[in-house]
Q: What sequence folds into this?
């Protein structure tokens, strides 16, 4: 908890920090990578840096954490910390690196705010940083220990046992272990980080949701190639798509991720496009467990041809006694599969939703925001809705900056 000495200082300086936090985050990363170029090889995602999404997520998280400390001092923002800790653990972040981040972050704060950073202000923000850092370090220690790894042993080699072309743009990789080490179970909904050496020699990490239930031997994930349009094509997804085949090896982390299935109550999955992947993983787990729960699968796509994993998902729905599937295709209600099909974008008005369900959303941010609002409109409690973001979580960061006192003043 924040000390009595620091609280008024944080309250007084939060508006100016919040107003400048994106600039602070941008200079922080430039300085960090200048001092520690090794962090660009295998640890940080350079696509997120180029798009500035990681800078915004870091800025938003610090602003949210500080404003939560001031507003509700007895309760840490758990959802925020969980998401970050799982992502960090999937990248092998060490406690010692928090010192490095601290030094570079405070360099950037002084660089941006100059003389406004008096010794009193610096001490108060130092306290905020270490409260957040220790909360994360503590949680990451627990995550490593639960997976039986240390930060240095997070990475392990796997071999591509099967490559399945799902659609024109999506391919699944079924990975088999290459050693005798135990394959730890995943929680349904989790992802792995895959670390891929790029043609320029730099390793790039990306997260991919697991799409099949555990069998003690394999892990399966599915990748959609990112077409850049007027921007560069996605580098890792296209590399995996074009160059990785059966027999090749990939380096992967154990499964992490805080959006996991609660299989003690009815379940509703709502996804769009490649957002089907964590849903397919959770559904596969429910099918393997012969679940009797009411399960509703809602999925939106362009058309049947672009619906990745459709056969697996619909086969799983067919084996579950209380499951149903409803799909929406933007290009029209045409289907050859046993599924309730609609034309257009997802609309929940005509869908019967089970009572007291847990909801899981995954897809582009506007899709998830729209569905979440529609569910809340229908009386679903926000705490029953979980969502997975395929990138740094800017939704949360947005909520944060809106909530930060004084953010929109003047
Ligand atoms: C928890 C989680 C689970 C995920 N699960 C899945 C999954 O199951 N399946 C899946 O397919 N994906 C998943 N993802 C997304 C995945 O991790 C990658 O982000 C995705 O594959 C794109 O990576 P990339 O290297 O191909 O693209 P990147 O190279 O990282 O590019 C990403 C974007 O940045 C833009 N960009 C890159 N460089 C520049 C530049 N210099 N200037 C301007 N713009 C630039 C690109 O045009 C592109 O739009 C998941 C992500 C998370 C966080
Ligand atoms: C208190 C300190 C820290 C805070 C507040 C913080 C915050 C964050 C946030 C908000 C994210 C994005 C999570 C998401 O939504 O996916 C993130 C990801 C990440 N963090 Fe941290 N972090 C801290 C410390 C560290 C340290 C010490 C390291 C080690 C170098 C580190 C490395 C990373 C990396 C590599 C990612 C993934 C980046 C990406 O995928 O683009 N962080 N962190």
A:
């Amino acid at each position: 908890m924040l000390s009595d000495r620091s609280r008024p200082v944080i309250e007084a300086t939060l508006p100016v920090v919040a107003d400048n936090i994106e600039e602070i985050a941008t200079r922080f990363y430039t300085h960090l990578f200048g001092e520690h170029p090794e962090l660009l090889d295998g640890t940080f995602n350079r696509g997120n840096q180029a798009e500035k999404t990681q800078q915004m997520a870091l800025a938003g998280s610090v602003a949210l954490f500080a404003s939560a400390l001031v507003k509700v001092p007895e309760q840490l923002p758990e959802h925020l910390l969980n998401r970050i800790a799982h992502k960090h653990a999937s990248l092998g972040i060490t406690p010692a690196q928090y010192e490095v981040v601290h030094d570079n972050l405070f360099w950037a704060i002084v660089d941006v705010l100059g003389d406004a950073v008096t010794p009193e202000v610096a001490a108060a923000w130092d306290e905020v940083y270490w409260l957040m850092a220790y909360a994360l370090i503590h949680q990451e220690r627990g995550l490593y220990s639960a997976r039986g790894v240390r930060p240095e042993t997070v990475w392990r080699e796997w071999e591509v046992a099967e490559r399945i072309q799902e659609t024109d743009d999506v391919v699944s990789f079924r990975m088999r272990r290459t050693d005798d080490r135990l394959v730890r179970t995943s929680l349904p909904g989790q992802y792995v980080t895959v670390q891929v050496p790029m043609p320029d020699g730099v390793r790039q990490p990306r997260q991919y949701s697991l799409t099949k239930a555990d069998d003690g031997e394999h892990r399966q994930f599915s990748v959609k190639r990112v077409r850049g349009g007027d921007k560069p094509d996605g580098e890792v997804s296209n590399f995996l798509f074009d160059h990785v085949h059966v027999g090749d090896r990939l380096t992967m982390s154990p499964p992490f991720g805080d959006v996991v299935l609660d299989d003690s109550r009815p379940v509703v999955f709502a996804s769009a496009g490649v957002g089907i992947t964590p849903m397919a993983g959770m559904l596969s787990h429910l099918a393997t467990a012969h679940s009797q729960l009411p399960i509703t699968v809602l999925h939106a796509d362009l058309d049947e041809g672009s619906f990745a994993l459709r056969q697996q998902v619909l086969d799983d729905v067919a084996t579950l006694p209380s499951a149903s599937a409803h799909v929406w295709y933007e290009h029209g209600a045409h289907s050859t599969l046993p599924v309730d099909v609609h034309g257009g974008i997802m609309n929940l008005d005509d869908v019967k939703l089970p009572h007291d369900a847990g909801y899981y959303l995954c897809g582009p941010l506007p899709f998830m925001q729209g569905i979440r609002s529609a569910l809340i409109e229908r009386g679903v409690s926000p705490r029953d809705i979980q969502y997975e973001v395929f990138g740094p979580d800017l939704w949360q960061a947005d909520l944060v900056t809106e909530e930060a006192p004084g953010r929109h003043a003047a």
